[in-house]
């Protein structure tokens, strides 16, 4: 992906996805602002969404490509697989996918230059497995249409074999020898790496893990919960993560 004087740099895209009512437009707007502060040079910011109302003008909003799935299924992030369509609205170049509820705390430039065909976060809870966490992944647009084609033609088999989209995605690309992981310190988990261990969590505040560039919020709380000192499980106390306000803003 490095360019030479005779080779133009590949276009860079940040892609996120918002559907349903769990996340409002402020998540997309703040994500854009965090990217702008932490990524040098030009990039295109695209939000695949079913509702563009309230999203800032710098963000290009496009419909989420249909996966043609049966209605009423549990939401397991399957929609993210639409990013692997062979022609995603004519976009070409290198894409970095970010979940809308991450908090960016450091430079993003290396996410576009880190060697590897497909990069993803290594699973936190079970690192002996190959499964990745798809809160942050990078690929060349249009390069892996077989991910989506196989999913569509084997959906019933896949949804019974894999718990969610990231398990399927990791397994599929691992079998092709294309799966690689970000350096562990780049994308830490707030839940696993940013909360002081018990019982010090009762008097020590959550913190930004050393070397963090994108802090991942999954499971028990999202950025506003963390900022307010809320966890969505009983008996798991945290003090307010005041550091969130320093980064998660427009």
Would you mind describing this structure in some detail?
The protein is an alpha/beta fold and 250 residues long. Helix content is 24%, strand content 17%. It contains 8 helices and 9 strands. The protein has helices spanning 25-38, 109-113, 145-153, 155-161, 165-175, 190-193, 223-228, 244-247, and strands at 12-18, 44-49, 60-62, 94-98, 103-104, 118-122, 132-140, 179-181, 214-215. A 7-stranded mixed β-sheet has the order 3-2-1-4-7-6-8, sandwiched between helices. A two-stranded antiparallel ribbon has the order 5-9. The relative contact order is 0.14. This is Glycosyltransferase. InterPro entries: Nucleotide-diphossugar_trans.
The helix content is: 10-25%
Q: What integer value in Å does the Rg equal? A: 18 Å
Element order: H for helix, E for strand: EHEEEEHEEHHHEHEHH
Low-confidence stretches: 1-8
**Major β-sheet, in short?**
7 strands, mixed
Number of strand elements: 9
Hey, roughly how much beta strand do the residues contain?
15-25%
Helical/strand content category = alpha/beta
Mean pLDDT: 93
Q: Helix count, per DSSP?
A: 8
The strand order across the widest sheet is: 3-2-1-4-7-6-8
What does the overall shape look like? Answer: globular
End-to-end separation: 30 Å
Protein name: Glycosyltransferase
Task: Summarize the entry for a quick read.
By secondary structure, the protein is α/β, with parallel strands linked by helices. It has helices at 25-38, 109-113, 145-153, 155-161, 165-175, 190-193, 223-228, 244-247; strands spanning 12-18, 44-49, 60-62, 94-98, 103-104, 118-122, 132-140, 179-181, 214-215.
